[in-house]
Amino acid sequence: MSNTSILAEKASPYWWEAAPPGPVPAQPLAKSVDVAIVGAGYAGLAAGLTLARAGRSVAAFDAMHPGEGASSRNGGITSGSIRPSHAAIARTFDEATANAVEAEGKTAREFLYEFLSTENIDCDFQKTGLFKGALGYDQYDKMARDAEGLAKRLGIESYAVPYKEQQQYIGTDFYRGGVVRKDIGGLHPAKFHAGLLKVALAAGVSVHGHTPVTAIRRDGAGFRLQTPAGTIEARQVLVCSNGYTDGAAPYLRRRLVPVRSRIIVTEELPPEVMDRLMPQRMMMGEGRQLGHYYRPTPDGRRILLGGRESGHGTDATAPIRRLRRGLTELFPELEGVRLSHSWFGRVAMNRDMLPRIFEKDGILYASGFCGSGVVWAPWVGTRAAHRLLGSGDQARSAFFSRPPAAVPLYRGNPWFMPAFIKGYALQDRIAWWRSKR
Description:
The protein is of the alpha/beta class. The chain has helices at residues 3-6, 42-53, 86-92, 95-118, 137-154, 189-203, 250-253, 271-277, 318-330, 373-389, 417-434; strands at 8-10, 32-38, 58-61, 130-133, 158-161, 178-181, 206-208, 215-219, 222-227, 230-239, 257-266, 283-286, 293-296, 303-309, 339-349, 356-360, 363-367. The chain has eleven helices and 17 strands. The chain has a single domain (3-129, 183-434), classed as FAD/NAD(P)-binding domain, CATH 3.50.50. The strands form three sheets. Strands 2, 3, 7, 8, 9, 10, 16 and 17 form an eight-stranded mixed β-sheet that branches. It has a five-stranded mixed β-sheet with strand order 1-15-11-14-13. GO terms for molecular function: oxidoreductase activity.
């Protein structure tokens, strides 16, 4: 296969074709505000909107164009996934926290869907459901039990799909059945951010693009933030920088590891091919440590597929080739299909793999969405805003907790990621070898 058939035509996000991030209307930097927010992605803007509507003066700062990071680069799947199992969360925290985290996922998705409707944000949202494939029959049995338990505990429409019925949901023989969740859907992430930005600006949030916060210092009862545009005083500070956290928030940076997530998108495929491969146009996932997430584009004409990468290799084409192999492993008939786009963005992981709202030295942090920020970022940002407002019930969240533990010997350069990626890949190979197929 030639490089021309391996590499993508464009190295920019597919989503930017319809909604490219760009400059916001220039606004003078205020001398002081009630709340300064670091980061103008989903979390920062959702928080700013809540605060502004409560009568607070708010300035949000972004080092790039607002939304140029993960908010316009992600896969657009409203999964709200939590990586650790219920049992693992109970061991790390307690049973009550594990139950609360699971229940809050349902609430956060419902909040997002209601928000899109109430604010009239047109971002191609469709609640299509999600199919998750099982590697072997043993994994299928566990996933089926989990789906049944989820339906009983939370009333979510969730059910098993045996191998003999799999082709009704996905045109592949790679899996040995799977499960479906009907409360998950897909949207256009860049359009979502653009709509959220418009609403936040209309509410009075002052948004400053290409204005990184370079330092945050205590100043009496408040704070002083340094930016290239000048200094601003704030009574309260909220940091929502997630995978793009830098030296301005050193305490957070030692606790969040930025991980590259790369996505490829195919050229337009014939309708009969899409009908065969993705007959119900669902969102897709699978039960591997380094599993792929994939979906049809909102127009139903292309397939988008993503996965993690270490970001430390010398061969820039290797991550694209790995995703292409994953695509053809699932759908052999797509061997040789052209790729229109390939890009990456940063997701933020922490040691216990849970989103978090926490306070340190008077600064509130809302971050660590662990690859599921479409649901968690607006929700956690809004909860954090209510925390600053002292809103009582609306400020409560299972994610308001102690800070995540610091990563030893880490100060911003994830030098250890290649080893972690290789370790996860080894776990996947062992799981594949042991799976009953």
